[in-house]
Amino acid sequence: MKERKPKNVFKEGAISSEFIGNSIAKHQSKTSIGAHNIFLGQVRADVIEDKTVAAIEYTAYEDMANEKFHEIREATFEKFNLTCMHIYHSLGTVKAGEICLFVFVSSPRRKEVFKALEYVVEEIKAKVPVFGKEVFEDSSHQWKVNS
Predict the structure, then answer these.
(1) pLDDT one-digit tens code per residue, 82-138
(2) Is 4 domain-assigned?
(3) For the residues of the chain, what is the DSSP string, one character each?
(4) 82, 116 contact by CB (below 8 A)
(5) Which of 45, 47, 48, 38 is nearest to 15 (CA)?
(6) What's the domain range around 132?
(7) CA-based angle 58:60:61, to the nearest 5?
(8) pLDDT for res 147
């Protein structure tokens, strides 16, 4: 397998359904693929101490985060028989109901995409230095704690 270089996975603001749809459509010509699996992380309107989350403001140590995303991507290709993988994460403000994380994996076989996708998402949550500040409807805010 050829050596890959770290890519910038960050997109400013929410990840649109058009972007997601176009990403899927680009794979129709790749006829060795038998299965795709997609994870879409969406901002929840959680209620915390009687205040509702209106948005999350994402920040990151971008160079370090892109390197971690790259390491996770490479480890996933080593562990699973994947044809391709795409990861995109939002920076900036993403409103409740909008998409902030898009992970797309493809393989010749369906079982691989289920295992690989769970592995990738759990690794991202555990290892990538991306931070979210919850912004409440009253404009107050606090740093988000991953659960």
Answers:
(1) 999 999 999 999 999 999 999 999 999 999 999 999 999 999 999 999 999 999 999
(2) no
(3) -PPPPP---EEESPBPHHHHHHHHHTTTT-TT--EEEEEEEE----EETTEEEEEEEEEE-HHHHHHHHHHHHHHHHHHS--SEEEEEEEEEEEETTSEEEEEEEEESSHHHHHHHHHHHHHHHHHH--EEEEEEETTS-EEE----
(4) yes
(5) 38
(6) 10-143
(7) 170
(8) 60
Number of domains in the chain: 1
Cα gap 13→119, rounded to integer Å:
25
Whichever domain contains 85, its CATH number is: 3.90.1170.40
| Percent share of the chain, pLDDT over 70 | 96
Q: Is residue 130 part of a domain?
A: yes
